[in-house]
Amino acid sequence: MKSKEIRESFIKFFEGKNHHKISSAPVLPYGDKSLLFTNAGMNQFKPIFLDTEKPKHLRVVNSQKCIRVSGKHNDLEEVGRDGFHHTFFEMLGNWSFGDYYKKEAIEWSWELLTDVWGLDKSRLWVTVFHDDDEAYDLWEKETDIDKSRIVRCGAKDNFWEMAETGPCGPCSEIHYYVGDDIDNQQAKYVNNSDEYWELWNLVFIQSNRLKDGTFEDLPKKHVDTGAGLERICSVLQNKNSNYKNDLFSKTISDLEKISKTSYQDHEVSYNVICDHIRMLSFAIADGVLPSNEGRGYVVRRVLRRGSRFAMNLNSNEPILYKLVESVVSTMSDTYPELKDKQKHIEKTIFSEEQSFLTTLEKGIIQFEKIIKQSSSDSISGANAFKLYDTYGFPLDLTELMASEKGKTVDIKGFEEEMNKQKELAKKNQKFVMDSQDIQWKFVNNSPHSSFIGYSQNESSSKIVNWADNDSNIYIILDQTPFYAESGGQIGDTGIIKNKDFSAEVVDTQKNGDFIIHICNLKRGTISKDMNASCKIDLVRRNNIRVNHSATHLLHQSLKSILGDHVNQAGSLVHPDYLRLDITHPSKIDKKDMDAIELLVKEKIAENISVETNIKALEDAKKEGATALFGEKYGEEVRVLTMGSFSKELCGGTHVSATGEINEFMITHEKAIASGVRRVHAITGKHVKLYIQDRMNTMNSLQEANDKKELEKKNQSNMLNIIDIDSIIQNQTHLNSIAFINEEVALGSIADLKKLNTKLSSKFTSGIAVFSVTMNEKAVISVSVSRDLIEKSVSASSLAKIIGKTLNGGGGGRDDFATAGASSDFSLTEIKDKINKLITSEMEKL
Description:
Layout: H1 3-15, E1 20-21, H2 46-49, E2 59-67, E3 88-97, H3 102-116, E4 124-129, H4 133-142, E5 150-153, H5 155-158, E6 159-161, E7 166-177, E8 196-209, E9 215-228, H6 229-236, H7 246-259, H8 267-285, H9 294-310, H10 324-331, H11 337-340, H12 342-373, E10 378-379, H13 381-389, H14 395-404, E11 408-409, H15 411-429, E12 450-451, E13 458-469, E14 472-477, E15 479-480, E16 494-497, E17 501-511, E18 514-524, E19 531-536, H16 538-562, E20 568-573, E21 578-583, H17 590-605, E22 610-616, H18 617-622, E23 636-642, E24 646-649, E25 664-673, E26 676-683, H19 685-721, H20 724-729, E27 732-734, E28 737-743, H21 749-760, E29 767-774, E30 777-784, H22 786-789, H23 795-805, E31 810-812, E32 816-821, H24 827-842
Parallel strand pairs: 1-2, 4-5, 10-11, 12-15, 28-29
Antiparallel strand pairs: 2-3, 3-9, 4-7, 6-7, 7-8, 8-9, 13-14, 13-19, 14-18, 16-17, 16-19, 17-18, 20-21, 21-26, 22-23, 23-24, 25-26, 27-28, 29-30, 30-32, 31-32
C-alpha cells in the first residue's frame, strides 16, 4: 500500500465506525501560545479536554501534520542518523469525546492492524499502564493477541498528561518487532530496543490531576489515539527505515539528480535533508518564517542544519529550495496549501540559504579570530558552540579546521552548551497550564456566548457567569453583541449595566466557546442570572468595520500589483489604523506602493457591495476563497465577498459597501522578518487628520529651517564686519610668542576657517584661538603659524588639550584645528581657561 492509500484507509475505517473526518490543524498552533508547534493530533482538541468548548462531533478522525524538535525520540541532532527520527511527521488519529472508551478503542485498533492491514500478529506487542487492569483484561479478552505479548509498564511510558495539572490518563501502546530473528523476541526489549517500533498510542483520558498531585475522575472520559503514518508506511511497505518508504522516494530521487550523488553513499545527509525540507515546507506554508526568536528561530536552525548537510554533497550553493517541488507533488493532494504557497516557500528558503552561506563565510573569519586570540591548544566548548549556533559550523567541521591548526576542541564543554540550549527548547515547548486559572463564581451549564453582533449593536442579556481577576472582572453572557478578538480584529468595548450595577467593557476575548467580557466594575454587585443591558461603543466599532474591509481591499490589491506570491502573514484591525503583514521578498518601491493605494481607492469609489455567506469549508475553497495563515476553520465558514475583486474567509465585522470606507492612505511599509513586509494604512477621517498633522509638522520644520538659515546668514555677515586689525592690536605675548584669544559670532566651521585665512595675511607669526557658539554648542578654533610649526607647536595638539580640559574633543591639522566644549562652560569661562592652558604650554618651549 502507498502512503496515500494507507492514510485514506485509516480514515475510511473510522468513518465506517461513525467517526467524522476533520481537517488537520495548521502546524502553527491557533490561539495557543504555550506550544511552539502543533506536535500532536490532540492539540486542536485541547479546549474540549479542558471543558471550555463543546465538541461538534463525539467521534472524529483525521491525519494531523505535526512538528517536534525536542523531547522523547525528537532530538534534532539525532534526526537523520537513524531511520525513524523526524522533525515533521503525520499523526493518524481517532477520538471519542465522552462517547466510546477503552473497549472499542482496543478492539478497533487491533481490527485495523491485523484484519484490514494484515500485520503479522506474531510481531505485535502491546503495553498498558501497570495499574490499568481494565485495559489489560480488554486486550486479553476482546482480541486474540497472545497474553504473553501484553506488557505492563510504568508512568514514564504509559501515562499521558497534558500538563502538570489537568486532564490525564493511562495509555496503551502497540509495538511492532522489525528484527530478523522472529523467534527471539522478549518483553524486556519493548520500549528499550530500536527493533521494537511503537506504531500506535491509545490514550484514555479519565482523570484530572489537581495542584496537590492527587487525581479526581473526569465527568466524561475521552479517547485520544495517535499513529505515526511514516512508521505505518515503513511496516506495510516492508522497509527498515522510514526514509525508504514512498513518502520520501520522490525527494530522494530529485536530490540525487540535483546533487549528482547517491543516497547509498550519503545516507545520513540525505535523511537530514529529506526530513528538513518537509518540515520547512509545511511550517512556511502555515505562516512560520525564519527569524531569530521563537518558532522562527527553530525554522532557521532546521534550515541551516539542512544546508550544512547539503555541503556534504559538495554543494556550495542553495539547493534545498529545489526540493520543495518534490514535497508538493507527494503531499499536496492531502494538503493543498503546499501547492498554493509553493512559490512563497521556495523564495523564502532560497533567500535564507543565500544568507546562511554568507554567514558561513563570516564564521570562517570568526574561527581565525578564535585561533589568533587564544594561546591554548584547545578551542573552548563555548567558542565551538558559538561557531555552531551563530555561524552554522557543525562540530566535526570545527574539529577538522582545529586539527589543521594543531589544536583540539573541548567536546565536553560543547556538549554542555548544547544541553543548555536543548533544555531551553524543551522549556519553551512544554505545555503549561495557565497559572492564573479563572475562578468562576457559579457552576453553570446554561447556553452561553451566542454572538449577535453582526446585526445588533446592543442587547438585553443574561449573565451566565462571572469572576474576579485582580482589578478587572470577567463576565459571560448568554448572548452578546460584543465581538471577541480574532482574525486580527481587536475586541469590542462598551457598557454592561442594569439598575444594580454598571461595568465598562475594556476588551472582549475568546476562550474556547466562551466569549469573555473583560470589565472595570463601576458600581454595584453582580448576582446569578442577572439580566443586563449591553451596548457596544458604536463609533469605535464603525471605525473597526471600515478598517477591516479596507484590509481586504489592501490584501487583494497587493496581490494584484506585486504578484500571487503575496499572502497574508498577519494583521491588526484597530479603530485608528490597520496593518497587514505580507509575504514579499523585498522593499515595496514607491511606484508599486502608489499603484496599490490607487487600486484600493478605485475599489472604494466603485462602492462595491460587501456580502457574507455561510458555506462548507471545502465548497468555499473550491470557489477560490482565500484562507489565511494560521487560522483555524470549522466545517462551515463565513465567506466575505467584494464583487469579483476579493473573496476571503473572515469572521470579522464589515461595511455593507466599499464606499463607506471613504478615504484610504498607506502611511508606510517596513520589513519585520526575512521575506515579510508590514504595511500600515489609515481610512476615513484619520486620513484628513494625518495629512493635516503632516502639514503642521512640515510648516513647523520649514519655520525652524528658515530661522536657522537666517541665523547662519546673519552670522556669516558678521565675518565681513569683524575688524582683523583690532583683533591683532589686542594680541598678547606668551614667552615671546604672539597670542590672540577672542570670542566671535560666526555661523559655521567654514566661516572660522575663512576668518583664520584672512588673519594669516596680516598675522604671520603666532597662535590664534577663536571661540564661537554654533547651534547652542561652543566651538573653538586654533591656528598656528608655519614658523611655530617648525618649532613643534601643533594646532592639533593644542586643540586636543583644550577639548580634554573642557570635557569635549579636539583635533585637526598642525596649522588649523578645532575643539568642542561641554555646555557647562560659558564663552567667558572658556576664554579664561584657554589663556591658562596656552600660557602653560608656551612655558614648556
